[in-house]
């Protein structure tokens, strides 16, 4: 934090990119030409879009809400040291229309170019100047992260050569 923030202070505000059906976000295919020691290789691979890691969703909904803005990129996960939580803004703002909270998913399928929902990041306790901002991302995120860590293998690990070699 750049200054002391009392409990209950809105630490940050983030408009949301809202998608009613995010199924098109799941896979991205990369084409990569690689030249190594005179061997030319074309690598094509598909990965899950990383935007999912920064979005809010629910397992029983196709709705996906992705915050954006300068501050949200610096909020990391820490269950024990969480000092902010998210909430809907308490008033109408340029990028927050409270009536949108009552809309159903099909409404959001046609609002890609509009902004009508936002989140406030609110201090759970007093935050001191210089203290990092943390949020508890929740059980599902922790489970997905642990699964990712246990299964992750870099692309082409058999070709990896340490710079000292």
From TrEMBL:
It comes from the Eukaryota. Transmembrane segments: none annotated. Residues 1-138 form the SET domain. Signal peptide: none annotated. Gene3D superfamilies: SET domain (2.170.270.10). InterPro entries: SET_dom, SET_dom_sf. PROSITE patterns: SET. This is SET domain-containing protein. It comes from Cyclophora tenuis. The lineage of its organism: Eukaryota, Sar, Stramenopiles, Ochrophyta, Bacillariophyta.
């Amino acid at each position: 934090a750049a200054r002391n923030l009392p409990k209950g202070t809105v630490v940050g505000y983030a408009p949301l990119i809202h998608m009613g059906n995010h199924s098109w976000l799941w896979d991205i295919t990369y084409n990569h030409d690689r030249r190594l020691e005179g061997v030319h290789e074309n690598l094509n691979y598909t990965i899950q879009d990383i935007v999912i890691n920064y979005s809010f969703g629910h397992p029983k909904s196709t709705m996906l809400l992705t915050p954006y803005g300068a501050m949200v990129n610096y909020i990391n996960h820490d269950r024990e040291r969480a000092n902010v939580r998210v909430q809907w803004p308490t008033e109408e703002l340029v990028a927050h229309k409270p009536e949108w909270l009552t809309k159903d998913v099909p409404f959001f399928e046609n609002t890609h170019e509009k902004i009508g929902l936002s989140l406030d990041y609110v201090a759970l306790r007093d935050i001191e100047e210089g203290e990092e901002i943390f949020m508890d991302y929740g059980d599902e995120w922790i489970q997905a992260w642990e699964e990712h860590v246990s299964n992750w293998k870099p692309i082409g690990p058999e070709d990896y050569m340490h710079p000292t070699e």
